[in-house]
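Please go through this chain and its backbone structure tokens and walk me through the local backbone shapes. Keep your notes short.
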Amino acid sequence: MILKYPFVTEKATMMLEGENKLQFIVTRDATKHDVKRELESLFDQEVAEVRTMMTMKGEKKAIVKFADAKAAEEILSRLGIM
């Protein structure tokens, strides 16, 4: 499992509403292609873009943009967050 958990903060919520992006904490050795493949297989939504970065805590964070305008909100509601 590459995805550890969704990263939900005030800034992440603004990105969800304005840019249709979600943030996930992923394993350190995960590549952008791994994250894209896993998200598409888990949620059946097309991923348009994946950006990764290391946090100050040493965790790897992936910012994911979806092709469908309502995909990010749907995924969070499936996870029980929204």
